[in-house]
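Tokens for Tf2-1-like SH3-like domain-containing protein. Go.
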Amino acid sequence: MAHYMALYGRRCRSPVSWFEVAESRQKSYADVRRGELQFQVHDWVFLKGLPMKEVKRFGKKGKLNPTYVGPYRILKRVGKVVYELDFPTELAVVHPIFHISFLKKCVGDPTSIVPLESVVVKDSLTYEEVPVELLDRQVRRLRNKEVASVKVLWRSQSVEGAIWEAEAAMKAKYPHLSFSNSTPA
């Protein structure tokens, strides 16, 4: 009888059995997260960017390639795991048929995505938000003063994304905006 068996009344778990238990545990965790991925026609998906050295794809080169580009609409299902995408005319040179492993489901409304061409990024990696119009005006009464606010629609946002800003600060920074048209709430 082995010393371990005599002391503890059971067999010793060797390091070999530890690895087997750990691998099966990791596999079971991974299998829970892995599911059957399927898309329907007219779904929106992102396409994996495929970064490769010295290859320029989707406007960037090397490590600066985006991980996913898009979103693109699925035109049709070609095979069990192959889909054809609807590309814009500037990507006409890219073959539109891709395996499901290169696709990622687009969650949300793709029509609300702001195109990068409308945002001008400076060399310092910053951009300037530009107000488009004033949607509303309100005056809030605090203990001993009144604060006027205006609801501002910014260039890269939808009407639902408009935010309240201090009227005095907006007048100082953007004097060209029409502050007389905004009505008090």
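Helices lie at 3-8, 15-33, 167-173.
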